[in-house]
Write a structure and sequence with these properties.
Elements lengths: L13 H7 L8 E12 L1 E5 L11 E11 L9 E10 L15 E8 L20 E6 L21 E2 L2 E2 L18 E10 L4 E8 L2 E2 L1 E2 L14 E5 L5 E10 L3 E12 L4 E6 L5 E3 L1 E9 L6 E7 L8 E4 L9 E2 L3 E7 L6 E9 L10 E8 L5 E2 L2 E3 L12 E4 L2 E2 L7 E6 L2 E4 L3 E12 L4 E10 L5 E2 L8 E2 L4 E4 L4 E2 L14 E4 L4 E10 L5 E11 L5 E2 L8 E4 L4 E6 L16 E5 L7 E3 L10 E5 L4 E7 L8 E7 L5 E8 L1
Parallel strand pairs: 17-24, 34-39, 41-44, 41-48
Antiparallel strand pairs: 1-15, 2-14, 3-9, 3-15, 4-5, 4-14, 5-6, 6-8, 7-12, 9-10, 10-11, 10-13, 16-18, 18-22, 19-20, 19-23, 21-22, 23-24, 25-28, 26-27, 27-30, 29-31, 31-32, 33-36, 35-37, 38-39, 40-42, 42-46, 43-47, 45-46, 47-48
Length: about 650
């Protein structure tokens, strides 16, 4: 029996691979390398980027198109293709042979039977498992190299290694059949330490695996992968094709790599050996997926550390520079420096698993006097030093007396500042006709954003006729320029002379003159003291005869008129009778043709005569008395 895969496994999602291969923390990036087509007998290559598995996990995904392979001549024509990662300075096909130490990669093969790629006869599937896809960590090795989650006792009992381009033969199911020679592949890599790691491969969303219990319908060892060795901090993605006996073609399409790149950088200014005078730019670019800080310095007549430093952020210097993790710039006035040779040293801070980078650049300094500026701004700042609109700075450059004069084409004459903030630093440069460059700095404070209020201050509800009730202060955010307290109203009062919702207006103005307002509402309610007898307050159930008229008495602290009920109220709804709740019989009933409301000035009580229905006998109901102040009050009744 051939030791081909009986691919009957279950789908193992990529999330499982990642849970097994949780990497060292690091900022990752994704690079799309597009498509690579390889044709002929032997063709190889690699991408120039250097990846660090020591910094974070890595995935390599692509679609493998095997339709250009030749299967004729009874084994006289055959080919193998590879794509994976290998350490820097190794070859691009079988980086190692019968030994590990360079990395890990996808290695492809196919059935040696003549015309194996031909379609199966209709209704007669044949045992022609066309394409083989495995991981390799050494050229010439097979499935026996898999050792994760453990070494399979019988490597030939594998799943999702062999694939059929058409049909389903006796050893397969639909998972690995009808591939049409196209395979979506994801290789997931993780570094255990500086020289060893783990690799798993997912094909057509299926994890590879091995059967160990004799039942081909189960996959015991899955997802299956392998350990590998190499320089984890310096890996490159490579690809290759080797074939003979015919012109073979394979394609790796939509190649995408996610991981941590080794940093790369270059000093952009000054140029090597450049002669500078006056204002000089010290610039560099840097590519890293997790940029951090930077150390830099300019040293007279040496590049050695901690020696003759005249400018930088080391050796006691704290000179200005801009750095966003990818672009560095510092500008220095060299007119007072000792003329002679200088060295610019640029040394970004690298993360774990990344190479140390120290770039240097030699240049010369000449003695010069640059132009100077007398900047003004429009519009002028207010009395507190702030603007609430964009500001135009006019620099008003001038060269020294007897100088060559300014070169307006190489001078910043005006700068429009649109940012917001306090003491925004604005810089400009100007060269004279001799090429001496001057630099000027101006500070402007701009706040175009109105203050914002927080939530309305808590308050109320307030009882009717209790005077002016204070509310506030309200919180306000005026972080940019700060709050102008003298022009703001952050507290207020609520008029309680009538019930209902009352509006209180809050105002705020910041130091730049931006105003804002907010209106908050507060409730004024009647002074409710509960129901009076014969009605008892909840939780007591009032026992009454259905069909009787019940006097519902309550006080609102004075005669508030008869228009006190909200529209549609009072009203009642049926509720469950709580047999465990206390109850009390209604001692007083009235004879009435319908419900009515009146006010008793002697008792200072309202009397609402509630006419009940005889049909309510044997039920419980809840009476809701809702007032025009928005409040509701409830009493429970049990009817006999």
């Amino acid at each position: 029996m051939k030791t081909w895969s009986r691919v009957l496994g279950v789908v193992a999602v990529l999330a499982l691979i990642f849970s097994i291969s949780a990497g060292i923390a690091g900022a990752s990036t994704t690079k799309d390398y597009g498509d690579v087509t390889l044709t002929g007998g032997f063709q190889t290559g690699h991408f120039p980027d250097v990846w660090s598995l020591a910094a974070c996990d890595m995935t390599v995904s692509f679609t493998y198109d095997a339709n250009g392979l030749e299967d004729a001549f009874g084994g006289n024509a055959h080919a193998w293709a590879e794509l994976g990662v290998r350490a820097v300075n190794y070859g691009d096909f079988n980086p190692t042979w019968q030994a590990e130490g360079a990395g890990v990669w996808l290695a492809t093969d196919y059935d040696w039977t003549v015309n194996t790629f031909d379609p199966d006869p209709v209704g007669f599937p044949t045992l022609d498992l066309d394409d083989k896809l495995i991981l390799q960590k050494g050229g010439g090795w097979g499935e026996g190299s898999y050792n994760l989650p453990s070494t399979p006792p019988a490597p030939g009992n594998n799943h999702r290694v062999w694939w059929d381009r058409d049909g389903v033969d006796p050893w397969q199911n639909g998972e690995t059949a009808n591939t049409n020679g196209l395979y979506d592949v994801v290789i997931t890599l993780h570094a255990n330490n500086a020289t060893s790691g783990t690799a798993y491969m997912n094909i057509r969303t299926l994890d590879q695996g091995f059967e160990t219990d004799g039942n081909w319908n189960t996959i015991e060892l899955t997802p299956a992968g392998m350990t590998f060795t190499g320089n984890m901090a310096h890996m490159q993605v490579f690809y290759g094709l080797y074939g003979y006996g015919a012109t073979h073609t394979v394609a790796f399409e939509d190649i995408a790599v996610t991981g941590c790149l080794q940093p790369a950088g270059v000093i952009t200014s000054p140029g090597e050996g450049e002669v500078v005078f006056g204002m000089a730019d010290f610039g560099a670019t840097y590519s890293d997926d997790d940029p951090s800080g930077v150390q830099w310095g300019v040293r007279y007549n040496t590049c050695a550390a901690a020696t003759n430093t005249v400018w930088g952020n080391v050796d006691g210097h704290n000179d200005p520079f801009t750095w966003d993790g990818s672009a560095f710039l510092s500008q220095a006035d060299t007119s007072s420096w000792v003329p002679g040779p200088y060295c610019f040293v640029f040394n970004p801070t690298e993360g774990p698993g990344e190479d140390d980078m120290r770039l240097t650049r030699w240049f010369e300094v000449m003695e010069v006097i640059p132009p100077t500026a007398s900047p003004t701004q429009d519009p002028e700042a207010n009395a507190k030093g702030w603007n609430n609109t964009d500001v135009t700075i006019t620099w008003n450059w001038a060269d020294e007396e007897g100088g060559s004069g300014i070169d307006e084409e190489n001078c910043t004459m005006e700068t429009l500042v649109t940012d917001e903030g306090e003491d925004i630093e604005v810089t400009a440069t100007c060269s004279d006709l001799d090429g001496n460059e001057g630099e000027a700095t101006y500070y402007v404070s701009i706040d175009k954003t109105a203050p914002t209020f927080g939530d309305c201050p808590e308050g109320g509800p307030f009882d009717l006729n209790t005077g002016l009730q204070p509310v506030g202060p309200i919180t306000v955010n005026a972080d940019i320029s700060g709050l102008d307290g003298g022009s703001s109203t952050l507290s207020g009062s609520v008029d309680t002379s009538s019930v209902g919702w009352k509006a209180v207006l809050f105002t705020a103005t910041d130091n730049a003159g931006n105003p804002t307002t907010k209106t908050c509402s507060y409730q004024v309610i009647y002074n409710w003291n509960g129901f009076f007898r014969p009605v008892d307050n909840r939780p007591i159930f009032n026992v009454a005869k259905a069909g009787s008229a019940i006097p519902v008495k309550f006080s609102l602290s004075g005669n508030q008129g008869l228009n006190i009920f909200a529209e549609g109220y009072p009203q009642s709804i049926g509720i469950s009778c709580d047999t465990g709740a206390p109850s009390d019989g209604i001692e007083e009933t009235l004879t009435a043709g319908g419900s009515s409301l009146s006010y008793d000035p002697i008792a200072d009580q309202y009397v609402y005569v509630w006419k009940t229905l005889k049909s309510w006998a044997g039920t419980c109901r809840q009476l809701e008395v809702k007032l025009i102040d928005g409040t509701s009050h409830y009493a429970n009744f049990q009817f006999k």
